[in-house]
Amino acid sequence: MQRLYSFLAILTLFLVSACNLFSPVDPLPPVVSAVSVIQVVTSGATVSGTVQDPDGKNSRQDKKSGQITEYGFVYATQDKPVLEGGTSLKVGNAITSTPFQFQGQITGLNVATNYFVRTYAKNEGGGVSYGEVASFKTGTYTPPLIQIGTITDVTKSSANVGISFFDRLGTETISSFGVCYSASNNLPTTLDSKIEVGTKTTGGSYTATMTGLSVGLTYYARAYAIYSGGITYSGVLTFTLGEPTAFLPKKSFTMNYSNPYDLDLGELVSQVGAEDLTWYPYNDKAGIYPKNGAKFAVLGQLNFDNVKYSDVTKAVLTTDFINGSYTDANANKLPNGTVIAYITNQGRYGKMYIDAHGQDRVNATSTGGDMQVTILTYNK
Predict the structure, then answer these.
(1) What count of other Cβ atoms lies within 10 Å of the Cβ of residue 91?
(2) Where is the signal peptide (predicted)?
(3) Which stretch of DSSP H or E encloses residue 69?
(4) H or E element, residue 18
(5) Which CATH architecture has domain 31-137?
(6) Mind giving me the DSSP string for 301-343?
(7) Can you spell out the DSSP letters for 149-172?
């Protein structure tokens, strides 16, 4: 009986061992090396790693775990980063030789921060392996000092501004610089309107031309410089684009019945092509008839001196006839005290004031039909 128990015990042990022998094999991870940190900058690092044994065999069953399907680097601000919790930089899917060396560029890191990095590799059997951990600290940077100057050379839609770099240009290479500006954001950034002045600099002074401006609006401007550490800005310059100079200062005259007038000069003209309007033509209704592309808009009964250049440029100007009827008060768009905005055929903005509306002209021999006006035409 004792022999029977011994035999059964030996048989049981053999069966258990046999079951273990033929049970599924745990996937064997590939063998990878410790990472090498080649170069560190303010916002990234260049790293290198090696796959030593791409198709390692399981020693118990001599079973391979398959080819490598992915390899790269994993990094984090915590030690021993893993794919589940760190940031991965996949470098490739397959290798061509052994040992296989590969390199990667980690970017978008915070400055002056400690990071941990190591290589990883996956294979067909599902194995994942990590190399030893290396650590590095991203560099610090010194931003360049940039200053914004004064406003010069103002036109109706543009202005120049100076930019100066101090002796200290910082520790990073400047990639571009210029001026950003806005009428709504009192702390403008490069997401607002901007003028790029240059792509690299060794210091000195420069001039930027801000365009697309409107008279009467207050603008905020800052010089900026972009470099690998980020963007640096100057202090804020505030300015308001004032009234442009007058091409034709305020001038009063009479528009005679059925005559063409040049609003750049404020004169009756006979030269075809120079006129901006004809007032009350023969055998037609009283009113303003635009000529040669000149445009007009009725602003209303306003104080002439209080109407700003920006009011004129914002008006909806058209080449439409403006009714100046003497007989129909409801149709008349030009009663005394009315201000009209215009742009001449030469491209100059201006404003007109109706001082006195004349008498209706009833026939070819009757008098009347004139209109007294005051105009001011701005420089381009």
Answers:
(1) 18
(2) 1-18
(3) strand 68-76
(4) helix 2-21
(5) Sandwich (2.60)
(6) E--GGG--HHHHHHS--B---EE--SS-TTT-S--TTEEEEEE
(7) EEEES--SS-EEEEEEE-S---SS
Spatial distance between the Cα atoms of 290 and 321, rounded to a whole number of angstroms = 7
Residues 6+ apart with CB under 8 A from 65: 27, 28, 29, 30, 55, 56, 57, 58, 123, 124, 125, 126, 127
The answer to whether 325 touches 285, Cβ cutoff 8 Å, is yes
Compute the Cα dihedral for 44, 50, 54, 58 and give only its sign: negative
Cα–Cα distance between 235 and 67 in angstroms, integer? 58
Task: Enumerate the domain spans of the chain.
Answer: 31-137, 146-240, 246-378
Residue 65 has pLDDT above 70, yes or no: no
Strand partners, 37: 47
Residue 199 has, within 13 A of its CA and on its CB side, a CA count of 0
8 A C-beta contact, residue 192 and residue 224: no
The answer to whether the beta carbons of residues 260 and 278 sit under 8 Å apart is yes
DSSP 99: S
Q: What is the pLDDT of residue 19?
A: 46
Three-state secondary structure readout of 182-250: ECCCCCCCCCCEEEEEECCCCCEEEEEEECCCCCCCEEEEEEEEEECCEEEECCCEEEECCCCCEEEEE
Per-residue pLDDT, averaged over 109-135, amounts to 87
pTM above 0.70, yes or no: no
| Contact call for residues 350 and 312 (beta carbons, < 8 A) | yes
Calpha distance 54→309 (Å, rounded): 76
Q: How far apart are CA 95 and CA 93, in angstroms?
A: 7
Fold classification of 146-240 (topology level): Immunoglobulin-like (2.60.40)
Q: 176-232 pLDDT, tens per residue?
A: 899 999 999 999 999 999 999 988 776 788 999 999 998 778 899 999 988 766 788
Q: How far is CA 355 from CA 167, 323, 331, 335, 339, in A?
A: 61, 16, 19, 9, 10
Residues 6+ apart with CB under 8 A from 231: 189, 190, 224, 225
Structure tokens that stand for 180 in this block: 């950003």
pLDDT of residue 42: 72
